[in-house]
Amino acid sequence: MAPTPGRRRLVSLVVPLHNETDNVDAFFGAITPILRGLHALDYEIVCVNDGSTDDTLDKLVAWSVADRHVRVVDLSRNFGKEAALTAGIDEARGDAVIPFDADLQDPPDVIPCLVQRWLEGFDVVLAIRARRDADTWLKRCTATLFYRCYNAISDTPIPDNAGDFRLMSRQVVDALRELPENRRFMKGLFAWVGFRTTYVEYVRCARVGGRSKFSCWRLWNFALEGLTSFGTLPLRVWTYAGGIAACSALVLSGYFLLRTLIQGVDVPGYASIITAVLFLGGLQLVGIGVIGEYVGRIYTEAKRRPIYIVRKVYGARSA
Ligand code: UDP
Ligand code: MG
Asked: Of 45, 178, 55, 171, which is closest to residue 102 (Cα–Cα)?
């Protein structure tokens, strides 16, 4: 989008925070010099307090009083990172918007590189993790597996090792905000809107302080969310699985019939019956589970509840 004449272009950093009290000061300490160094560009930092139960909010409000570039959106409870990010993106006024984690796992000095590529004319600049040394072996393996499965079933692939850290132009952000769904798998939505995309590589560091909010169980649910958000293959695959199982059962019954006719009745066939019953029963249960996932999604979407609720916004609008 062309900037209004006479106005410096604005870059918005959107930061979701949930119980990040250990990181708030380190975050501003690291990020502010980098954003100040973006010559000829103005900046704002939109922090979203996602229902923190520690004193994250107090610290953020203190920063918003001290620095006119900082604005704080306080949500009414913990809505989860995706909703917090959505709240921040809705609040951001920038010509370019960059989602950024408060734990400084993504190095702030990549931001000028993202901005540079945007100024060269790209709409989306992805920050791709060149290495994930800071993550555990298990997390790396499960992440790779997830990206493989996701890309196999989705029409809009997400690049391997791209997180939420990226730059999006205003046009991309407006397109993103048009998407009406309630349950938002942001990485998928980002990929779905498209636009001219390039990428910058970086190495992801360990957290500065505090602990990751994503336990194994939460990551598993996140992966299910992603897979069911962007593909219907898990629904359709049961038609084929059921078809194959039914055909095999038919062939097998033909074989048993022939054998009985030729050789007479031997042992009453308990083993083959129980195997078939268990196999088909298991298959049906998995199928019902998959349908349940989608029905659950339809149910929550049908309620049309807001994605998040803002309790209060602190700090002045800088643009
Ligand atoms: N976060 C959030 N709401 C949540 C969980 C996390 O706003 O319910 C924020 C968190 O404060 C951090 C970012 O999302 O700024 C990424 O979370 P985290 O570092 O725990 O995720 P990981 O890097 O382990 O994937
Ligand atoms: Mg993190």
From this structure: 45
Q: Which CATH superfamily does the domain covering 9-218+305-314 fall into?
A: Spore Coat Polysaccharide Biosynthesis Protein SpsA; Chain A (3.90.550.10)
Residue 213 one-letter amino acid: K
pLDDT digits (tens, 9 = 90+) for 243-263: 787 777 777 777 877 887 888
Q: How far is the CA of 96 from the centre of ligand 2 (A)?
A: 22
Site to probe by mutation for ligand 1, drawn from 76, 89, 161, 213 as the one with most ligand atoms within 8 Å of Cβ, is 213
What is the CA(302)–ligand 2 centre distance, in A? 32
Q: Is the pTM of this model over 0.90?
A: no
Number of neighbours of residue 252 by Cβ within 10 angstroms: 13
CB 28 within 8 A of CB 63: yes
Q: How confident is the model at residue 206 (pLDDT cuts 50, 70, 90)?
A: low
Q: How many CB atoms lie within 10 A of CB 137?
A: 8
By percentage, how much of the chain surpasses pLDDT 90? 37
Where residue 319 falls among pLDDT bands split at 50, 70, 90?
Answer: very low
> What are the residue boundaries of the structural domains of the chain, listed by start?
9-218+305-314, 233-303
What is the Å distance from ligand 1's center to 154 Cα?
Answer: 25
How far is Cα 296 from Cα 299, in angstroms, rounded to an integer?
Answer: 5
Percentage with pLDDT > 70 across the chain: 91
- Residues 44 and 219: their CA atoms lie apart, in Å, by 30
Q: Whole-angstrom distance between the N-terminal and C-terminal Cα of the chain?
A: 16
